[in-house]
Amino acid sequence: MTKALLLIDIQNGFCPGGNLPVEDGDKVVPVANALMKSGRYDLVVASQDWHPANHGSFASQHAGATPFDLGELSGKPQVLWPDHCVQNTPDAEFHPALDISAIAYVQKKGENPAVDSYSAFRDNDHSALTGLADYLRRKGVTELDVMGLATDYCVKFSALDAVDMLPGIKVRFIEDGSRGIDPQGVKAAIDEMKSAGVATVSSRDILAA
């Protein structure tokens, strides 16, 4: 039995002061650090939004668009975001308080300007895989806990893809280790994950076990 912790996009861009801040996004950092330090996991992996400056999910790349408009990208509806997590900028770096020394593998995502990649496992149009599923298979992962930013986007899609692409694996969502953009979206995301077989847990439960 191999237990893994997947940290989703705990980057400056999604924390207060970043270009696409999630409210209280930085509050997930101490949770992540405590879990990594606990010895409860055999493996810690992380995803990192890593967009080129001309990424098609940016409102700046669409004439007349403003951030948070609904547009289209790769044939799918697409929220047009502020420019964020651009490669090799401070916005794309992991939060400085995150203990990255405990992370064994970083999966960059969102590098193709023609399609967004909320999930750490594949692009939104499902045409390209990131390689994370293969990595976790090679490591023999049987249980995967997922947490980070943001619950209603990248965390949700990563958890759902883990269930879909890694049959038989036990996937859990760490609620207090995640923050979302929209309260209604967060509730819907948790319901959707639950329907797919993803259990909701808290870090307190994990640390007390």
Q: Structural class, from helix and strand content?
A: alpha/beta
CATH-assigned fold name: Rossmann fold
Overall pLDDT, averaged? 97
Low-confidence stretches: none
What is shown here, in short?
With 209 residues, the chain is of the alpha/beta class.
Characterise this structure.
- With 209 residues, the chain is α/β, with parallel strands linked by helices.
- 46% of the residues are buried.
- The model has no long low-confidence stretch (mean pLDDT 97).
- The strands form 2 sheets. The chain has a 6-stranded parallel β-sheet with strand order 5-2-1-6-7-8. A two-stranded antiparallel sheet has the order 3-4.
- It has one domain: Rossmann fold (3-Layer(aba) Sandwich), CATH 3.40.50.850.
- Helix 3 (151-165) runs parallel beside helix 4 (183-195).
- It has helices at 28-37, 132-138, 151-165, 183-195, 203-208; strands at 3-8, 43-49, 70-73, 76-79, 105-109, 143-149, 170-179, 199-201.
- Strand 7 (170-179), helix 4 and strand 8 (199-201) form a beta-alpha-beta unit.
Write the layout of secondary structure elements.
Elements: E1 3-8, H1 28-37, E2 43-49, E3 70-73, E4 76-79, E5 105-109, H2 132-138, E6 143-149, H3 151-165, E7 170-179, H4 183-195, E8 199-201, H5 203-208
